[in-house]
Amino acid sequence: MDRLSLRTNLENYRTPFEEEASFIPDFTALTYDKNAFVRERLAGHFTGSAWIVNKRRTHALMTLHRKLNRWLQLGGHADGNENLLEVALLEAQEESGLTSLRIVDAGIFDIDRHVIPQKGEIPEHFHYDVRFLIEAEMNEPLVISEESKDLAWIPFDAVDDLVGFNPSILRMLEKTSKSEILL
What we know:
- It is a single chain.
- The chain is α+β, with helices and mostly antiparallel strands.
- The protein has one domain (3-178): Nucleoside Triphosphate Pyrophosphohydrolase (Alpha-Beta Complex).
- The chain is 31% helix and 28% strand.
- It contains 5 helices and 8 strands; from the N terminus they run ααββββαββββαα.
- It has helices at residues 3-12, 18-30, 84-96, 156-163, 167-178; strands at residues 44-53, 59-65, 71-72, 74-77, 102-103, 110-116, 125-135, 148-155.
- Strands 1, 2, 3, 4, 5, 6, 7 and 8 form an 8-stranded mixed sheet that branches.
- α1 (3-12) runs antiparallel to α2.
């Protein structure tokens, strides 16, 4: 999924979630910026994430992010790569050590624009996060990267308590729970 297919997918993306729907015009507009896929664009830039679930759709793999000290999905900066599905898969593999990652659907699963706080010389900025639904085997050993404090398969019924009020995580959880994709 390069810049042009991302733009097309965003233009055609539909969601019943009002907050998520409100992001679509800004995401689409960002695809026209030549620096949209590099972190040096300090106003905000694209990131790619993987919402990793087990095949039975009972658990999500989450990381306790070292810098943000919050439980989140795996993912990261595009660093110039315009294929955000590829970014999401690479980040998921690097941050978990999993080799059983499998794309459930190459289309966009979720989008979220969120603020990243200032850290040192890097000012507060937005991440325009494009998320993809990925499956993995729960019995495969996990490898915690230096970007994480912890990594765990979280039962769906415990995600809400773990993340507190994080509407984007809760939205992905709801989408997954309603999903009839059981491959």
